[in-house]
Specification:
Blueprint lengths: L15 E2 L14 E8 L5 E9 H9 L2 H4 L6 E7 L2 H15 L21
Antiparallel strand pairs: 1-4, 2-3, 2-4
Length: about 120
């Protein structure tokens, strides 16, 4: 049975566009966990998974050319608060399960099975 985590959406219960989600909103203060970035397009695919301070990591990815080359297909993001001691395992699981296009390796930790954002 996977560990249930809560994947966040933007106002109106829609997936957040990576380029326009308001990272300066007070909500993002002290939010740490894991995230998934994907593109829409004709064949939607996971672009990147990661972990850390959410607003810092997403701000970095807005300037990452390896990620931004998919912007014309629509880049979306979701994140979940995950305790620090589980993050490496959750990121490992997401990396193995979703096969992101960008990101050459996953943390060296046993995978922690969680629900996917689309489940």
């Amino acid at each position: 049975m996977p560990t249930t985590i809560t994947w966040m959406k933007c106002q109106g219960e829609v997936w957040c566009p990576l380029g326009t989600v308001n990272l300066s909103h007070p909500y993002f203060e002290n939010i740490e966990g894991v995230y998934v970035i994907w593109h829409g397009g004709a064949a939607p695919a996971t672009v990147r998974v990661g972990q850390g301070v959410i607003k810092e990591r997403l701000a970095d990815h807005r300037n990452d050319q390896d990620i931004q080359k998919f912007a014309n297909q629509g880049l979306f993001v979701t994140w979940a608060v995950v305790p620090k001691e589980l993050r490496d395992g959750v990121e490992r699981f997401l990396f193995e399960r979703l096969g992101p296009i960008v990101g050459e390796r996953a943390p060296d930790a046993p995978p922690v099975d969680v629900n996917l954002p689309w489940q």
